[in-house]
Amino acid sequence: MAVHRPTIEMLRQWVELACHAPSVHNSQPWRWVFSGGDLHLELDTDRLVATDPSRRQALISCGAVLDHLGVAAAATGWRILVDYLPNPNDPLFVASVGFTPMTYVTVAHRRRAAAILTRRSDRLPFRAPQNWPAAQLLLSRAAEGRPDEDSAAIFDVLSHDDRTTLAEASRLSEALRQYDSDYHAELDWWTGPFGDSDGIPHGSLVSAAEGQRVDVGRSFPVTHHRRDRRTEIAQDRSEIVVLSTYSNTRQDVVCCGQALSRVLLEAEMSQLSTCPLTHVLEVDVSRDMVRSLVHRDHPQVLVRVGQRTADDDQPAPTPPPAHRRCIHSACVVIAGNRVEDLCLYGSDLRHP
User: Fold this and answer.
1) Which pTM value belongs to this model?
2) pLDDT value at residue 351
3) Which parts of the chain are coiled coil (predicted)?
């Protein structure tokens, strides 16, 4: 009987595309290891942020890259089979991924994979999303996932009446950390101008005037642009989605990251802009405020969702793509005693 397995070249392409997944501060805290026919996803300890001591945000990031891998594989006719946290003695081992052929690849599979490369975290103000009831239904179903998947998340949309309370929670989370040197040093590190493979690019940050028009957002170091962008939008009119889990195990958090990926890609396919938010959940007081708004015990991540700007005369209306690590630093092949880069560009990349 023939054994159907993806080729190394397929794995290289899937991993490279998957690594465009969103992550906290674009830290990309994951590492892929190919061994014994399976692909292992691990936390990369060199890329964990100090202000995430529980590793919750890192696990959400790993869940997002795991779903992106599944999207990349599905576009070429393969389905991933995920074994979550397979070694309880190894907290860095997030998932083992196997593969099985699909019977048919739809146009939607390919469109979703293409959306990986066009999705951005957009911190600028949004217009209200058009036809929101229909979009909300699509995003809610994306969060739920397929019936045969274990990665569902609870999907809630905050009412406009709750927006004032959420904005207060956002300001409170920032105020409580205004003297936290470690927190601000880390933000400076991940937004520094020297990063060419990780961190948040300068063009994705907002100026002081732009930030004042977004009532719910993390306060990054202020940048200066030649002209403020989207000045035609006086105030952010986004809808805010909250993804929660029924319990708070490590697997729940990883699965929420997968749901986040599905929601972001579905929004991108619907030509909606998005921006994931976690700062209001990093401080107990503001996290409790979010809990009270959605009546859920375990909110994990928020997402601003809005309409793209349609004004072509505005400078840089869409944020630039975030930097990504070369694939050699995110993935290795283990074959016997040999360790090789799972890289796409051969001699262009150094070997470990």
Assistant:
1) 0.85
2) 25
3) none
